[in-house]
Every structure is written in C-alpha cells, then in structure tokens.
C-alpha cells in the first residue's frame, strides 16, 4: 500500500523527462483509448506501454496497480460477457439456449466473441488508468506544478493539483494507522460478518474525517506563514527544459499513435 | 528589532470567555524567548496573533490592544508537524517555497537557499525527497524554509514534541546556530528541558494573563511558578528544588557541573541504605517473544532474532532511536504484524491465528496520536469504549469517578476531539483502565502533555502496576523512562542490544553511547558523585544525598 498512488523515486529515463512531455503522452493516450476498440490495436498499445514501463523500471509498480484494479477489470469483463450473451453474434458458439420468462422469449448465446468483447473493454479501461498512473509514478508533485505553470495554468489551480498528489499518500497512511489503532483497542474487523465489517469501517471514517480536517487546517495556516498569495506573481527556483530524450519520447508517442490508428482502421471488428 | 505587545486581549466571539487578558510583554531582538503555560492558557491564541493568523485568517473574534504588524514585517512559524508545513517534493523545492511566494529573482532565491543550507549545516540533505527525511531532519528543513524568507521573528510551536533524542539534538544545534546568527526566536513549549541552555527570556501565561516575565535563571528559582504553569524543567533544576527541601543551606544550581560543584564535598562514595533497599525481584513472564524476525515486502528487515520476556506487574520501557524497531516490536505483541520468523506467546500460548481485537483482551496498544483513536460522540463514551468493545462490565459511578479524578468530569459531554492534545491523549490512556487487558502498551504517551497531565499519567501507570498489570512503554522522554521503569529493553538497528533493570543498564555507558541517547542528569550525577547503586530518579537521588548529609552531620557532631 505504501507505494500505491504516489510518485516513486527512481532515476530512470521516464523520471528524467520534462513533465510536459508526460502530460502530452497522458492526453494522447487517454483520447486514443477512448475511441480505439480494436483488439489488435489495443494489444499493440499495451505492448508499447509494457516497453515504456520496463525502460522506466516501473514494471513492478504497474503489477501493484493491476492487483488493485483486478476486481474492477473482472467486473467490466463479466459485465460485457453477460450483456453479450443475450445477443446472437457471428462466429463460434460455446453454448446457446432459448428460454422464456413470463411469456417473453429470450436466447442465451455465449459466443467466443463475447469473451473478445469483454477483454477489449477491460483492456481499454486498464490502459486508460495506466496512462494516468505512468505519469503519477514518474512525476513528483513539484514537477506537476511546474509543468502546469509553464502551460499558463493559473498557479492556484496548479498548486491545488500538486497539493492533491501531496496529500493523497498522507491520507492513505492515515487511514491505515486509524484502522490499526481501532483494531488495537478492540474493534473487530477481521473475524466478523460482512455487515459488521462494513459498519466498523464506517466508524473508522470519523477519525479519518477529523484528521483530514485537521490537516487541511494546518496546511491553510502554513500557506499563510509562507505568505502564499495567489494574486501576487511568484517566481520559481526550479526550471524545466525539454531535452533530446523528450524529443525521442514524443516521437515514440506519435509513431505509436499512428500505428494504433492504422490498426484500428484495418483490424476493427464491430462490437 | 524588538517587538512590543501592549494590552492585547482576545476572545473568539462575543459570547465566549476572554482567552487573553491585557497581555503586555516585549520580545527582544536576537534573544530566544520561551512562552510557557498549561494547556488552555492562551499560548496558541497568542501565536496566532503574533503570526497574523488573527485577524487575517480568523477575523470573527474581538481583538484589543496593539502589536506591531505590517506588510514589510515577516514573522514565520514552525509548527510541530513539519509534514503539514513543507510544500514541495524535494528539500530544495520546500526551502524555496516561501521565497518564491515573495516574488524574488531566481538568483536571489538560489542565494537564500544556499545560505540556509550552509547556516543550518544541512547541505547533505538538499537532493533528498522530504518524505525520506527523519523527523529531526524534516523539522530542520522546515526551520530553514522559514529562515530563507529572512523573518524578523521566528516562532516555533513545540518543535521537538514528536522527535527522538537524535532529532532533538539536531534541532538544539540548529537553535544554537540561530542564536549565534542573532535571529529573534520565540519557542512555545511547556517542556523547557530540551532548550534550557538556549533560552534567554521566559514569559509564563496562565488563565490568559502574564504571570511571569523574566530571565531563565529567575524562572528556575521560582518553584511555585514552575508548578503552577505545569512547566517541565531540566532535571538538574528539579534535583535542586527537591534537595533544597531536605538539605538546608544548599547553594543553587541548574546544570550538571554546577550540581557536582555544590554536592561533591557533601557526599562520600558509599552504598546508601535507601538505594540498597531496592532489591530486584523476578516475577513470571506474561508475554514472551522468541526468535522474532520481521522482513517487510520491500526487503527491509525491521527486527532480527529478538528474544525478550515481559514480566507480570512490571513497567518495561523499550529504548532506541526512531527506526530501531520499537514500534514494529510492539505491533507484533498485539498481533498487528505477523512475524516472518519466531513467535509471540501470551501466558504460554501462541497469539498466531487470533485477530487483533481478540488479542486486545489481553494485550492492548495505545497509539501515539490520540486522533487516530477517538471517534465517540462524547468523553464518557470514549472512556468506556474498550469496556463495551470487549464486553467488560463497568458501572457509571466508576467511570464518573475516573473522570473526576483526572479533571475530565467537566468535559464529560464534550466531543473528544475538541479537548486539548494532552487531555485527548490522557483520555485514550484512561480508556484502557476499563479494558480486560493484562498487558498495556503505551506508545509515546507524553505527547502534548504539560506537567499536570504528565503527573496524572505517572499516576495511571503506577496504578496499573499496583493492579498487577504489565506496562510496556515507548518514550523518548528519557528521564521519565528511568523514573518509572523497572526494566529496560534496548533496541538498535532492528536488533536487541540488552535487557535488564534500569539500574543495571544505567551503569553501561557504552550501551547508551552506541544508541546515541544521553543518560538522564540524575544518573550522570549519581555516577560523578559515586552513589551506588545508581539513582534513576530524583526522589532516590535526594534520599541518598540527604542520608549522606545526615550521616556526615552526625559524624561531625
């Protein structure tokens, strides 16, 4: 849980990139995965992502992500599988049966195509999430702020975005500590019914709320101590500059996009 | 420049009580001023006024009197939780944040960052991520970040309250650098022990009024004021205070060398009867860890082959710097962590396979930050939470009596999170009185407590011991550890270095040098004076000295 949803400090090719290059990658990949529905194209994109993760030494963190979202992906896969089973598709069929409920006739038709459809939708969602996560793992919140500022995003907005990524790991840690503290004083969350477990988790949310409010209060005081005023123009200590590596990564992103679009056009099966 | 505070009064709204009443004081240039006083005396409100939080951010209250402020004046605050104050991923980002807000040129920002890195000797931290720093390093970076703004005054609010001894030493050295550089500094902390060598001027607040305003030596000479304000004073001053009640004509002292000068002629190097009465008695081990090792998923080895026993009816303290494995060890004792190797047994039976809540009926752990534990709607329900969770019978009279004894009866219906930090902590500790657990683990129980609350805490720990319960204590307050503990367990870099009685281990200077923890002044003085066995608390020490003075007087007579 410690490294989930936060920047991982490494000195890789990906980490050294200009944050703006990674933002562009994220935007292009988000758009691409929103409309690409070709299994071949998505598989190609996945291989590109895999190469990027391996070069960036973040492969194991992506496995952690996969583990965290596996239930969601399974749900998406099963949802499309079940919905598809009530549509008759072309191609090989695994099981087909007709039945009627209150006078209405239905056909249950489980085809191999339903599995393909489920896999395509699950892969799309995973690629969407992982494009975002690739940026988060390799760009710390100070770089995020700098990148956004250089795109003329108002400092109040850029600072707010950076603050969210600074605070998320703190809140995750706080929640884990509160759970431990409550269990230590006798709150049963391990050996109890699902209902009792849920009730006890709700109980734990109260101290978490107080802690988050208290943190928010401390942060607003600190902003005052540091004379942060969004109406006053501020200067910057760090500078960001695009390098040869950024040009290379941008080229890879563009080539991957072109190839994906080509595969989408030529190998798309209507779903 | 000096800062004059004249006739400051404040209340949070028209229908609430007056928090500050007619405060007059002067904070002198290039001096270190301590503002002390019990919980709720108005210290935090005064800091809010000095830093401009009142009235800039909080403008609903009624503020009277005057304090020089202005746009050109920079007054910065270092809070007790630097993780909430540092903005920036890297140390350099965090240091530059305030200066960037001032709109200075890039070159000026670089110069200021370099200046504070050099001033506080933290150049080696510049490329580190803030999240990887130790507590002390983080606080040092926090101080550096406000100094980069070239403040006219720096206010530090309990800056070492959650630091280990090494972290405290780092901040002490940082404060020495500040003092040498002529920085006007205000420290708000009721524990004068850690910065008594640095402070020039002490202002005592009680009930929203200034009740003391003088220099450090004047403050140390006024025992009644110290007690009234609940200030934790250096143990050397406490020794003088207690000894002067038993030995007449004693010259005053407030340092170890001063105490030695005054006392060495009066003491013969012999074993004293009072100290010899303290014979060790062994009792059954209620909790035991055998060959305990812990490796985390990322490969970090947090504990290496620990073998230790915790005896019934004893107070056992676990000593070591942050990261030595103290918290990891106690989280194994109550089942929060499962060992990689070895086992934990309670009364001979292994705890593996039991849930944490089940183990809490026998072994209960009270966490360091009370906010992690409090969630009931009032103080009374919070007090009785453990009893209700564990099905332990209790009566309302019993619960109310506990609240009354520990000055919480008036807060009975209050939302627990609204209490002061010290009271919140006291409440979480009191709730274990209603638990069935025979082993109580307290992790940094003194956090946020003034002397009055700390005295209550000592009373609770002794009460638990009298009831035959085992108390395991983790605390960076070393004088308190030696005062209360029957046994010590010393950890360093995940290994157990030694286990034994406080007196036995107090004699092992090499051990404490190795773990970078200073022995309490009372132990150091006992050693210098040749008192055997070594006195581990002020009471034993003053008894030993008083006895020798009596014997010396009788011999001369």
TrEMBL record, chain A:
<feature type="transmembrane region" description="Helical">
    <location>
        <begin position="152"/>
        <end position="172"/>
    </location>
</feature>
<keyword id="KW-0472">Membrane</keyword>
<protein>
    <submittedName>
        <fullName>Energy-coupling factor transport system permease protein</fullName>
    </submittedName>
</protein>
<dbReference type="Pfam" id="PF02361">
    <property type="entry name" value="CbiQ"/>
</dbReference>
<feature type="transmembrane region" description="Helical">
    <location>
        <begin position="125"/>
        <end position="146"/>
    </location>
</feature>
<dbReference type="InterPro" id="IPR051611">
    <property type="entry name" value="ECF_transporter_component"/>
</dbReference>
<dbReference type="InterPro" id="IPR003339">
    <property type="entry name" value="ABC/ECF_trnsptr_transmembrane"/>
</dbReference>
<feature type="transmembrane region" description="Helical">
    <location>
        <begin position="23"/>
        <end position="56"/>
    </location>
</feature>
<feature type="transmembrane region" description="Helical">
    <location>
        <begin position="247"/>
        <end position="269"/>
    </location>
</feature>
<feature type="transmembrane region" description="Helical">
    <location>
        <begin position="68"/>
        <end position="88"/>
    </location>
</feature>
<keyword id="KW-0812">Transmembrane</keyword>
<keyword id="KW-1133">Transmembrane helix</keyword>
<keyword id="KW-1003">Cell membrane</keyword>
<dbReference type="GO" id="GO:0005886">
    <property type="term" value="C:plasma membrane"/>
</dbReference>
UniProtKB/TrEMBL annotation, chain B:
<keyword id="KW-1003">Cell membrane</keyword>
<protein>
    <submittedName>
        <fullName>Energy-coupling factor transport system ATP-binding protein</fullName>
    </submittedName>
</protein>
<dbReference type="InterPro" id="IPR050095">
    <property type="entry name" value="ECF_ABC_transporter_ATP-bd"/>
</dbReference>
<feature type="domain" description="ABC transporter">
    <location>
        <begin position="287"/>
        <end position="518"/>
    </location>
</feature>
<keyword id="KW-1278">Translocase</keyword>
<dbReference type="Pfam" id="PF00005">
    <property type="entry name" value="ABC_tran"/>
</dbReference>
<keyword id="KW-0472">Membrane</keyword>
<keyword id="KW-0547">Nucleotide-binding</keyword>
<dbReference type="InterPro" id="IPR027417">
    <property type="entry name" value="P-loop_NTPase"/>
</dbReference>
<keyword id="KW-0813">Transport</keyword>
<dbReference type="InterPro" id="IPR003593">
    <property type="entry name" value="AAA+_ATPase"/>
</dbReference>
<feature type="domain" description="ABC transporter">
    <location>
        <begin position="3"/>
        <end position="232"/>
    </location>
</feature>
<comment type="similarity">
    <text>Belongs to the ABC transporter superfamily.</text>
</comment>
<dbReference type="InterPro" id="IPR017871">
    <property type="entry name" value="ABC_transporter-like_CS"/>
</dbReference>
<dbReference type="GO" id="GO:0042626">
    <property type="term" value="F:ATPase-coupled transmembrane transporter activity"/>
</dbReference>
<keyword id="KW-0067">ATP-binding</keyword>
<dbReference type="GO" id="GO:0043190">
    <property type="term" value="C:ATP-binding cassette (ABC) transporter complex"/>
</dbReference>
<dbReference type="GO" id="GO:0005524">
    <property type="term" value="F:ATP binding"/>
</dbReference>
<dbReference type="InterPro" id="IPR003439">
    <property type="entry name" value="ABC_transporter-like_ATP-bd"/>
</dbReference>
<dbReference type="InterPro" id="IPR015856">
    <property type="entry name" value="ABC_transpr_CbiO/EcfA_su"/>
</dbReference>
<dbReference type="GO" id="GO:0016887">
    <property type="term" value="F:ATP hydrolysis activity"/>
</dbReference>
